[in-house]
Amino acid sequence: MTSFIVRRVLGAIPLLLFISIVTYAMMALAPGGPAAVLGPRGQGLSPEAILRINQAYGLDKPWYVQYFFWLKQLLFHGSLGTSYVDNRPVIEKVFEKLPVTIEMVGLALILTLIIAIPIGIYAGAHRGSFFDNASSTIGFIFYGMPVFWLAIILIELFAVEFRWFPSSGVSSLGRENDVLDRLWHLVLPVVAIALASFVSWMRYQRSSIIEAMSSGYIRTARSKGLSERDVLVHHAFRNALLPIVTLLGLSLPQLVGGAYFVEYVFSIPGIGYLTFSSIFSRDYPTLMAITMLTAVLIVAGNLLADITYAIVDPRIRYA
Amino acid sequence: MRSFRRFLRERPAVIGSSFVLLLVLIAIFGPILDTTDPNVVVHSLIGFPQPPSAAHWFGTDLIGRDIFVRSLYGARVSLMVGAAAMVVSFTIGILYGAIAGASGGIVDNLMMRFVDAMLSFPTFFLLLIISALTNKFSLTIIILIIGLTSWPGLARLVRAEVLSLRERDFVEAARALGASPARLILRHLIPNALAPVVVAAAFAIGDNILAESSLSFFGLGVQPPSPSWGNMLQDALTPQAEAAPWMVLVPGLAIVITVLAFSVIADGIRVALDTSIGQETGDELDVEPAPYAAAPATAT
Lengths: 319, 300
Known about the structure:
The structure holds two protein chains of two kinds. By secondary structure, chain A is mainly α. Chain A has helices at residues 2-29, 47-57, 63-77, 90-125, 130-143, 147-161, 179-213, 216-223, 228-240, 242-250, 254-257, 260-265, 271-280, 284-312. Chain B is elongated, with a radius of gyration of 22 Å. Chain B contains 13 helices and no strands. The chains are: A mainly alpha, B mainly alpha. The interface between A and B is large, with 62 and 56 residues.
């Protein structure tokens, strides 16, 4: 197991390097640059000014030189650089926005599981029933629903029409430390994310219950004369939860990058917001930091999924 | 033919196909039948969207343009981007997966490593960055961006399919008869791996439509004044639109129903092409999420 983990972590290094190179190249080779988006709207700066700025930030060098400089900073100084926009350390900017996103997506994930798992289990255990067909149909409908549209509808209904919840932001003015007020602001965004993502969890849970129900140990349990209820609760259910555990690991990166749309529609200052503003201001260091953070989480999530899977399912062995 | 008849027995799939057919006809002929320019201001009360009426079926938007006509043009954009981006990603994905699977060994290993790396990018993040940085928003560019970012999952599917086919007798026989690798891939492996690919294609069109409308919603796709369902929803975000629910409902429902139609078509094809899966174990094929995507890309 230990050697498996070590090998996987080592294997992730070239992957992360690759991702960083591609992202950097993509940004640096794209037309325009951090200096080109400055200046008065529609006018921009003079060519001389752009040249001066590029020289000052080393942006006049070829992209691979810039990239190696970025990599050197990271490896030898543990620094992801400072933002082109406000000269603050990029790490600081990212960690400032991170809590809001984690809080929102984390709550949404919990709500998603609360909705999806019972429905998935019930539908899978009663395959072909009215409930199964109805939940599949509803699932298909939600699958095609853009989350930003869902968010707008929620705002129109519950913020504008009924005035139950606020339509944007994370807290009321002057009540920034009030937990209840924050939660109240998060209700609509969290519901929007959960409604948009419960479908895949539900379908996954359903198919894993169906698979479990057709295994040999279920036939054994039934032939022992156990009631269908006992079979489902004590034998199928526990085994059918295993794939969900894996899926939880795989959804780790969403804690960071899971909510661009919802943050945009609800004006929530999280990572999605930071990503947008960095894209439009061509803030390479911040974009690199967000990309790398997400990539690390993806790799870590995969590893975590494999490890938990091996722990909860003794049939799996990693050499 | 047997599969086709089986497809016709899937009622949701038939309804879905009829809807898509209707939409295609509307997209082609609609603008010819109703010659209203989608950008012309048909109502002079700027800032006061008018509710649906006999003259303007779906009402008008903030600056008094006819939403029905704009939706028709939006259907054009959505279908074109959805299908064309699918063709781009499937051409790459099928060839890539088949070559990797057929080659085996170190070539396969390297090629799949690249796929792993591609899948380690958060999809929508990639889409956002590329389109924002390209800063050109012609339909061709949008199609290319969506197509070029969405093939790796498919390459994986095709490779797995080819790997299982590779050991079959008919492939062995073709190889023994001296078929070249190219012939083996194009004539034997790809055609036999097509069933799951066709299912994936129908889903992909829906996903691409969602991707296009998401990009356009953010102002990174189809640029106003050209109408697209996504950028029509962007208009609906403004405070004046709060009193005009039709501005939100029309383009949104258009997206939802269209994507739903492609999903049920995909489901119907799956049942029609693969009896064993359809009858024995229910519908597991589509529920298996791509290993790196816990939720649909659109949920992010």
